[in-house]
Amino acid sequence: MGSPMILYDYDFSPFSQRIRYLLHLSDIEFFRVDQPVVLPRPDLQMLGITYRRVPVLAIGKDVYCDTSAIVAAIQHRFQMVKTGPADKAFEAFGTQFFENVLRAVPAKFMNPSFKRDRETIFPVLGRPDLDTLRPSALGSIISLLAVIENDFLGHGGQYIGGDKPSVADVYVAPIVRWTLLSIGLGDEPGLGKRDFPRVHSW
Fold first, then answer.
1. What PROSITE patterns does the record point to (predicted)?
2. Considering the entire predicted model, what is its pTM?
């Protein structure tokens, strides 16, 4: 590899997991600089970066701050993971999935400082009736998982594009794994391995 690649992120971020997944699929060597979950982030401040979200990827002197831009930059430079004409649609699906999950995140993950920080990015977290949104959000998540189980993965292949992961998987799989495993929604009724075996083995 030519220019050094440095990823500024933290483990719990589903979007950081998306970028790490793409980098691993692409067999690209990179360095990680772990970041605080909430501001301030001195490492990025020292670089003059005011963008408040992670991940941030530096490739030599080039810095990419938006997840979509990071995916595009990696694909443009290395082209190691299969692309498809519907990739943007899968990206939108991943965004829709995440927006529903925001309304169903278990309360134990919402400590006051984290919640205050994220309310500035995701206003739904500041709604006083957030708890009442959870049942409908779980219903929406189940419906979206059914689409993944039966349509995206229903062709017999292990991945959306068949037997090998593609950019479509990059846009959707890490968000789903974060939902089911990292925040534990896979333990909720109707979201388990028996309900969605293909999704859980994805």
1. GST_CTER, GST_NTER
2. 0.94
